Amino acid sequence: MRIIKITILSLFILITNGLLIKAQENLKIKKSDFRIEIKEVGFKNAWKNVKEGEELFTAGLGTFPEALVYYLKATKYNSECAKLNYKIGVCYLATDKFYNATEYLEKAYLKDNNIADDVHLMLARAYHLNLDFNNAIENYKAYYSSFSVKELEKYNISVDKYIKECKYGQELVNNPARVIINNLGERVNSEFDDYNPVLHPTLDLLYFTSRRSIDKKDKRLDADNKYMENIFISEQAGDLWRRPKVIEKKLDSKNNESLLTLSSDGSKIYLYNGEENGGDILVSELKKDSWKSPKGISGRILSKDKETTITFSPDGKEMFFVSNQDGSIGGMDIFYSKLNAKEKWIDPINMGAAINTIYDEEAVSWHPKEDKLYFSSQGHNSMGGYDVFVIERDENGMWSSPLNLGYPINTPSDDIFFKMDETNKQAYYSSVRDNGYGGKDLYKIIILGEEKELKLKMDDIFLAWNHKPIDDLFYYAPTELKVDTALFMTGMITDSKTGELIILAKIEVIDLELSQVIATGLTDTTGTYQIKIPKKKDYGVELTAKDYLFFVEITNLSQKQVIESKITANFQLDKIDVGAKMVLDNIFFETNKATIKPESTTELERLATLLIENPTIRLEISGHTDNVGSYRANQKLSESRAKSVVDYMVSKGVGSSRLEYKGYSFNQPIADNGTAEGRSKNRRVEFKVLSK
Amino acid sequence: MKRLSITLFVIFIAFGAFSQSANSIEEEINEIRKKASLLYNEGVRFAKEAKYTEAHKKFDESLFLYNDFALPYLERAKIKIIRQEFDLAIKDVAKAIELNGDLGEAYYIRAYMKLLMKDHQNALTDFTHAIQKGFTESEAYYYRGLMNFELADYNSALIDYTLAIDKKYDFAYAYNERASSKRMLGDFHGAIHDYKQALAYDSTIIVAYDNRGSCKIKTGDFQGAIEDFTRAFQKDPEYYLALNNRGSAYYQMSNYELALKDFTKVTEINKEYAPAYNNLGVTKIQMANYLGAEKDLDKAIELDPEYGEAYISRGYAKEFLGKFPAACEDWKMAKELGIEEAEKYMTECE
User: Are B278 and B346 members of one domain?
Assistant: First the structure.
């Protein structure tokens, strides 16, 4: 029967290769291969298992699963025998547990690189079925290159198709479809092949075909050593399906019956009968809650060749079916027919090379409401075996190119009998997957929409105060009444150019007599500071703020008026802009030398801090003198002093590339050289911002 | 004790009811003021020794003699706050401000009470008044920072905490709160530094470990985050938020088993904490346990029916279970609750 063939098709193609058979014939396990000299215990039983396995292996594919059982038992005695491992691997490839094959084949190959002529092919198949496409391609190529040109021609050997499948597989696996595939469970599926799920239009009955045993008298078919096909029905119970029952006797014969589809109103059931006319489609009608005896479908659909699956448009006026009848491009193809004005099916039309390939197409299924056809194909961009594809008809009646439904719906094994529901949200199909109960199983596919953003919730108590109120911070010991002599120095700090308030500018008040900082403060959001000072007198003030040049000055607080215990002193700061200059008033040198005096340290540290906190600015440090003495001598002195400052900065970790130094002699006076005070001012070091 | 109110004296003076000269009246007033001040000072001494009942009594007596005297009102208000007599305290402090508008501390006390009542905007105003009137203690800036934070003005909060730290370099709480402001402003590394400072000065601030852990997650330092959350939970085994956050860190490291363990433990500590059930659900979705996820998300929604994100996640679980109409209902609900992403999921339902 056609459907039986489908279940074993991919391996069938592989095994019929002449060389392969030869290779396996040569691989008889000899006692000497298996026996371990120093290990007599257990050999007798183990060898018996090997012999049983060999007999079943030689009998053909259908008995590979049984051979496997004996071979596995034999490994308890010797798990290192290369031939035994090879055969276990090959047997696994013929079962639904194909994912176990790799381990054994790799072991066999490791032990003996020439274990079999087809070892690379077997390894390639195992890797291919396990989605390890790179290794699969490598082994397909190795297998191919192991033949001479003559042999390739003689046996018509090609691995191109498999390599293409691997490449398609890589693409599909890298872009998976957002679906969940759930096994319908042990109540529905059996250890045998279960396939072609068809939902009754009422959605509460599930029809499917199974090759499970119904009673103990059941016999297996010679062709594949499996039980015959029967149709089963399962009823829905909440989210689950009840244990299936065999369909009523009128539809159940002593032979194989396989289900194809139901009409959209559930009044007709279409069956496949492989024993009639090369394989035909039958139909039975439901009359008074009972199915009538099935008959061949009407019209010119059926031929002397095989017609297998069939599907109808939602209005029942069009159909697709699968056949290898005349006009087929290759293997099984999809044909189309529709009712004419006389309500008769027109002659079938092959869907053409855009949809049919030289390989088999199977399992057509029309979407319950839309102009979409789902089918399985071994061609197109299948990743191996049958993959499910969809085509869609546009408003002009043209069918689109087949679109692979993608991984994980499709796998390198057979994925077939896909049935989409009318909402496009779920579908049923049959597949061989590693979470199955044996053979092909029925699966429900949940088609997910766009990926949803799942949000974890993290909570923090941001304010420690909220976690544990700090009451002790609250209660201040009151002060007894007395005259408060405290004075406050207050004022605003602003940008010298824009007048903008400067926030978080730091002010340090220095007692000039003690040479120490006696109070510090920061400006708030209003650019205002307020500092408690011990008494009204002149203090040194140092101001620093981010992005501004520092500022040092002696205040004249002693001259200012006290209003409500407060003396106001406002300050302005210059922003660090290119071209901005600043005289470093508090750098002192030994007379006529470039040696910096120790009392300059504070000012130099300020400059170093400025450079460190503003790591991108570049400065020119310049030395200047009064006009006493020659220009040349003063130029040399002014440059040396500027260099001394630069050297100090470099010693503090400032990169030398950020600093330039120049001596200007007495060319750039800032005061009158005619007075002692003016000359003193002209003897100075200053800096200029070159870039920032 | 002789009680004379200044108001009464003024009336007496105005109407010349007595024949005493203005000087003698002035002397009398000064005498009463002096006595009231002495009583006030006695109260202050008791208060310093934490003898609040005695202190309260002395402030009462002071005000009995001279009821336009602002300071006893202020001190009495403090004692009432300690006794949690907030209604009475707020009356006293209001009276103190009415009598002396320059009393910075009075504004501070009133601001503090408003803070306790979660009247953040008015508390902010009063803290600002307190500072403007010269009450520039570090706590005034700290609390104003708290109010700015609560009002989502993180820049101003950051400045206030900086001012507080400038006044008191080891103000651990201020470091923690400044770190939180930095975090809200996206400066995670700066925040981590401040949390570290907070813990250096006070290692009992458990939330600082927790908060630092959350910042480390933002910088991709999951291992460091897990260590911080673990420390927080070890220091306070009832502090389930740290455990919830550790679970989230594990989740983000795709270690769903450990995430599940932590979220489960959170639900054992606090059965009413909806986010833990949401997180359990989300984790179970990642572990393909959709039925389990649905149950947890049911619970999250039962505890907080307006938990929009939980509806999104439950819809997701239902979608995985093939319950499409129910999934759509959940996304619809999430959309109604203002979750923007829900809108695009709704298109799948049409």
Answer: yes
